[in-house]
Structures are given as structure tokens and as C-alpha cells.
């Protein structure tokens, strides 16, 4: 973390405050030209092409921000063909009948292709039948069928035992070993046998990876590097299409629907990006806070990954707004504010009153005004839609975040390197995940009760586990960037100081093991009893799945995986 002498920023907001009532009237002068590109947290530009509304083919602005069929460029003929194809796939799924393996293969395929949201009823019916008899079978003849059934059931929240027997030799069953490795990714604490099976299958698959069958070897590498449970389906869909081996007629029907769905969803995403760009431009923070990151497209990639269902368009756009503020406030604490200013800002966010905002420097007032406006806007929308005003919860989440940012600023100001436990406890909060997932919980509107709101406010395990994975991955990525070394500390720094003589390689291995163990906790929290909706639960998983794309920097300080993912979706 570095501090720079504060520059004067003219506040372009003409505001009338009434913070206790949660009201903010503002007039914002909008900038006329913004280039959207992705930067590294240090401020250095990544190797992304300058991304403007034209380069991602955003449609011209219209008064109505809600996509219509005509607006998205989709004809009536396309709609009819798409609906026909959905029903064709539905019929194929029903034809599987009592053929368990065939039904499982189909479910796996629609999930990997990202078209499963059309067929929840059909998928649930198959899995319910499988669940009733799964643990009644003492010995299985097919390792792959056993592993696939286990994984699909666990993924959908069914608890099934990891105990099971398979007849025959499995060391040469490559498909079965890949299924076993995939299944092991859903292990929870205490399932030693599943962890052992994961290690066993990984060793055999790595040894087999030198086989002359290059096509099969590529599939094995993809499985080991990107197991389905820990990957985004949208990121892996193209690989699945190219790697699928088999002559089944139904896969071609599935692929046809996937291609049509891709065009439909891409049109929706482009409309959302247009809305995000306009909102960000009108907000004016890029003009007023020139030291901060200006990455609306990157910020939008988070809700795009976390909430993939096409119907959640409004939620994705709304969720981009608090995500942007997490990044902006992080930059205030990391690269611009003095310690005295950061204390004042933290106090203002904790009190959320005019008297606390008045002493702030202009650039902090600008940021707080934006924060207050976004919080009020989202709270008003949630109250209107679901009858619950979340403003106290949202304000509390921002206060907790700023308190954690301030702790890190104070550590840096005196050169203090905390113990690993102390660093991580604070770091999972400063990740901002609880802010984002808290907003998302309310925006989804599922299960908003006092009990569930209290659970969300108290940082439940499903949120803290996702935050831990993000914090540890973030620190791994930062360690690869020479320009960021010592910038704001990392878990690696704390671990190596706490364990003198430890090499960076061993420290990184320790972090990767910690990430693996945290995944087990996250898996456990997704199983019943779970107070949250399936949509929220899967979104928490998607946060963890998105993390490697966001923090895997290459030697040129670029994010090649994120760039590839972005190009494929928008």
C-alpha cells in the first residue's frame, strides 16, 4: 500500500443531503469520452484492447433499458426455432427413461453446455429417482456411472455417501478415473476416502497423460486443470463440445440448442454492458477520481459469471454497481488516501450522517455521495419488489469493509506484518465478498426473512468460505507481480515471516492446500440443511469458480484466461 499527497478534486455533485432519511439528490456532469480497459491492481494497463461500446457491438441507446426481442436483434423466426429446439431436447431427456447412465450423461452434457436452466424439472426427476436407489447398491459394475451419479447428486444438494465398491480393475479405466477425479472435487471435511480417491486418480491420470492418443491426453489435461465443479460452465462449454467423444445422436441436438442459446444470451449481455457503460459514465467517478481504476467491463464480468441465468439481467446490472464501489474504495485506501483521511472516511461510513461527511476532502465526499446514492437506489428497489428495506444491512456491510481496509492501512503505516491468522481473518472481510453477496441476496429476493437476513449480516460460512478462496488466490496472483511486491502485504508475506526459512514455492503450496481445504468447507455449506435458495448457493460457488480467472496473472501482468472468457461471452 502506498500513499500519495492528496490532490484537489472539484466535486461536480450539487447535492442536498438527508442521510438519516436515506435521501440524496444529485446533479452529475457526465464525461464525454471514456476508454474502457482492464488494469492490473498496481495501475499498469493489462494487454487488453481498448474496449469501447462499439468494439463489443453494443446496440444504440434507446429509451427503454429492458431488452425486447427486436432490440436484441432476434427475429420471431429465431424465437420459434429456439423454442422448438428446447422442446426437442426436452423430449430427448425424457426418452432416457430408466437408462440411468444415459440419463446421467445427458444431464452432465446440458450442464456443461450451460443450457440446463431450461430443464430443471426433468433433471430433478432423474436425480430424485437416482437418489432413492443410489446408496442401496452395495457394489457397482461401472466406475464412471458411480462417480458421475455421485457428482451430479452432490452438485444439486443431495447428500450421498462417498463409500462405495466397484468391481474389476480400475487403473486402466481412463474415463472412470476422470469421473472419480471430478467427483473428488465435491469432498467435504472428514471424507478421507474421497480425498484419497482424488489423489489416486490424479496420479494415474498424470502418468497416463504421456499416452500417444493426443486427443484423449488433451481431455485428461482439461479434466485435471479444470474440473467441472470448480470451473464456470460458460468458460468450459467450447472445450466440452470439441472434446466430447461418442456417436450418440442426442449430443448433436444439445449442441444445436447450445449454439442458439449462446446467440440469445450474448445479445442480452451486450444490452447489459450498454447499461453498465451508461451508468458508469453518468456517475462521473472516472472523471473525479482519476487515481482509481476505471474498469466497468471487468467489474461486470463478476455478476455475469456469478448469476448466469438469462432472466437475471436486471440483477446483473444492479450488482455491478456495488462491485464498482468496492474497487474504488479499495483504491482510495491503497493508493491515494492519507491515514488521517482514511480514518475520517471510515468514520463517515460507520455513522452515515451529514456531520461525519462534512470534514471529508472533496474526492472522498464524491465517493461517499456515489456510495450513498447507490445504496439508496438498490434499497428502494428491493423494498418495492420484495417489501423489505435492506438499507441497514447494506450500510453495515460497507462499514465492516471500510473497517477492514483501515486495519490494513494502519498495519502498513507502521510496517507491521501480522500473523497469518490475524491477516486472513481481516483479509476475508477486506476482499469485499460479503458486501457483494449481501447485495446479491437481497437483489435475488429469495427467502428474505428476518432469520435469513440476520444470517447474512453475520457473515455465514458459505460467504466467508468464498471470501477466503478469493483472498488466498488474490495473494497468489499478487506474488507473481514484481511491481506489487510489498504494496499492501499478502498472506504469503505473513506466512514466510512466521515460518523463517520457508521457500516461496513451499509457501505457495501451503496456500494452495488452504484453498483446497476451504473448498471442502464451501462444499459442506452447500449441502442441506442450508437456509439459502439454490440460486444464491450456486452464486456463492460461482464466486469461487470465477476467482482463478480474475487473479491468474501471467508474466506480462495480463489475465489471459479472463480475456478469453470475456471475448467468448460479449
Write the layout of secondary structure elements.
Elements (H helix, E strand, L loop, with lengths): L15 E3 L4 E3 L50 H20 L4 H13 L7 H15 L4 E2 L2 H13 L9 E2 L7 H11 L7 H17 L5 H12 L7 H11 L5 H35 L1 H4 L7 H11 L6 H24 L2 H13 L2 H4 L4 H25 L4 H23 L6 H11 L2 H12 L5 H8 L3 H19 L11 H8 L5 H22 L8 H18 L8 H10 L1
Parallel strand pairs: 3-4
Antiparallel strand pairs: 1-2
Helix pairs in contact: 1-9, 2-4, 3-4, 4-5, 5-6, 6-7, 9-11, 9-12, 11-12, 12-15, 12-16, 12-18, 13-16, 16-17, 16-18, 17-20, 18-23, 20-22, 20-23, 21-22
Summary tags:
570 residues, mainly alpha, two-stranded antiparallel ribbon, two-stranded parallel sheet, 4 strands, 63% helix, globular, disordered N terminus
Gyration radius, to the nearest Å?
25 Å
Hey, roughly how much beta strand do the residues contain?
under 5%
Biggest beta sheet attributes = 2 strands, antiparallel
Q: Which structural class do the helices and strands define? A: mainly alpha
Q: Would you identify the regions where 5 or more consecutive residues have pLDDT less than 50? A: 1-71, 479-487
* Extended strand count: 4
Mean pLDDT: 83
Distance between the termini: 34 Å
The run of helices and strands is EEHHHEHEHHHHHHHHHHHHHHHHHHHH
The general outline is globular
Notes on the protein architecture:
The protein is mostly helical. The protein contains 24 helices and 4 strands. It has helices at residues 76-95, 100-112, 120-134, 143-155, 174-184, 192-208, 214-225, 233-243, 249-283, 285-288, 296-306, 313-336, 339-351, 354-357, 362-386, 391-413, 420-430, 433-444, 450-457, 461-479, 491-498, 504-525, 534-551, 560-569, and strands at 16-18, 23-25, 139-140, 165-166. The strands form 2 sheets. Strands 1-2 form a two-stranded antiparallel sheet. It has a two-stranded parallel sheet with strand order 3-4. A hairpin with a 4-residue loop joins strand 1 and strand 2 (23-25). Helix 12 (313-336) runs antiparallel to helix 15 and helix 18 runs antiparallel to helix 23. The longest helix has 35 residues, at 249-283. The radius of gyration is 25 Å and the shape is globular.
Amino acid at each position: 500500500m502506498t500513499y500519495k499527497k492528496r490532490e484537489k478534486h472539484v466535486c461536480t455533485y450539487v447535492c442536498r443531503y438527508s442521510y438519516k432519511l436515506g435521501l440524496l439528490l444529485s446533479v452529475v456532469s457526465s464525461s464525454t469520452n471514456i476508454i474502457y480497459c482492464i488494469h492490473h491492481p498496481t495501475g499498469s494497463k493489462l494487454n487488453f484492447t481498448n474496449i469501447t461500446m462499439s468494439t463489443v457491438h453494443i446496440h444504440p441507446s434507446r429509451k427503454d433499458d429492458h431488452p425486447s426481442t427486436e432490440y436484441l436483434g432476434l427475429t420471431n423466426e429465431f424465437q420459434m426455432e429456439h423454442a422448438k429446439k428446447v422442446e426437442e431436447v426436452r423430449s430427448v431427456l425424457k426418452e432416457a427413461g430408466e437408462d440411468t447412465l444415459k440419463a446421467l450423461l445427458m444431464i452432465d452434457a446440458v450442464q456443461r453446455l450451460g443450457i440446463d436452466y431450461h430443464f430443471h424439472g426433468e433433471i430433478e426427476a432423474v436425480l430424485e429417482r437416482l437418489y432413492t436407489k443410489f446408496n442401496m447398491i452395495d457394489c457397482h459394475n461401472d466406475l464412471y456411472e458411480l462417480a458421475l451419479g455421485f457428482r451430479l447428486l452432490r452438485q444439486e444438494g443431495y447428500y450421498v455417501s462417498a463409500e462405495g465398491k466397484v468391481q474389476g480393475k480400475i487403473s486402466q479405466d481412463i474415463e472412470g478415473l476422470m469421473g472419480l477425479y471430478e467427483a473428488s472435487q465435491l469432498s467435504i471435511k472428514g471424507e478421507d476416502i474421497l480425498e484419497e480417491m482424488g489423489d489416486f486418480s490424479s496420479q494415474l491420470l498424470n502418468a497416463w497423460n504421456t499416452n500417444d492418443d493426443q486427443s484423449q491426453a488433451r481431455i485428461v489435461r482439461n479434466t485435471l486443470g479444470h474440473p467441472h465443479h470448480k470451473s464456470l460452465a460458460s468458460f468450459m462449454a467450447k472445450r466440452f463440445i470439441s472434446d466430447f467423444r461418442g456417436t450418440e445422436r442426442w449430443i448433436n441436438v444439445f449442441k444445436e440448442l447450445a449454439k442458439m442459446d449462446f446467440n440469445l444470451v450474448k445479445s442480452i449481455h451486450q444490452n447489459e454492458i450498454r447499461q453498465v457503460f451508461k451508468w458508469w459514465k453518468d456517475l462521473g467517478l472516472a472523471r473525479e477520481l482519476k487515481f482509481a481504476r476505471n474498469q466497468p467491463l471487468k467489474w461486470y464480468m463478476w455478476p455475469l459469471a456469478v448469476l448466469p441465468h438469462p432472466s437475471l439481467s436486471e440483477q446483473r446490472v444492479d450488482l455491478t454497481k456495488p462491485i464498482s464501489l468496492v474497487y474504488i474504495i479499495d483504491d482510495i485506501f491503497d493508493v491515494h488516501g492519507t491515514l488521517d483521511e482514511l480514518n475520517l472516511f471510515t468514520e463517515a461510513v460507520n455513522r452515515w450522517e451529514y456531520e461525519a461527511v462534512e470534514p471529508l476532502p472533496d474526492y472522498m465526499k464524491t465517493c461517499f455521495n456515489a456510495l450513498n446514492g447507490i445504496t439508496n437506489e438498490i434499497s428502494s428497489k428491493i423494498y418495492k419488489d420484495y417489501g423489505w428495506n435492506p438499507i441497514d444491512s447494506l450500510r453495515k456491510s460497507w462499514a465492516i469493509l471500510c473497517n477492514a481496509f483501515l486495519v490494513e492501512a494502519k498495519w502498513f503505516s507502521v510496517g507491521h506484518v501480522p500473523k497469518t491468522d490475524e491477516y486472513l481473518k481481516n483479509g476475508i472481510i477486506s476482499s469485499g465478498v460479503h458486501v457483494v453477496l449481501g447485495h446479491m441476496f437481497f437483489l435475488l429476493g429469495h427467502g428474505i426473512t428476518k432469520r435469513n437476513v440476520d444470517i447474512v449480516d453475520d457473515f455465514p460460512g458459505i460467504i466467508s468460505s468464498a471470501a477466503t478462496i478469493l483472498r488466498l488466490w488474490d495473494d497468489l496472483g499478487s506474488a507473481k507481480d514484481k511491481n506489487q511486491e510489498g504494496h499492501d502485504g499478502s498472506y504469503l508475506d505473513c506466512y514466510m515471516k512466521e515460518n523463517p526459512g520457508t521457500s516461496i514455492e513451499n509457501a505457495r503450496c501451503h496456500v494452495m492446500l488452504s484453498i483446497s481445504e476451504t473448498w471442502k468447507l464451501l462444499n459442506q455449506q452447500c449441502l442441506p440443511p442450508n437456509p439459502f435458495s439454490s440460486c444464491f448457493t450456486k452464486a456463492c460457488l460461482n464466486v469461487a469458480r470465477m476467482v482463478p480467472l480474475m487473479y491468474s496473472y501471467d508474466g506480462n501482468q495480463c489475465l489471459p484466461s479472463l480475456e478469453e472468457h470475456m471475448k467468448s461471452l460479449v
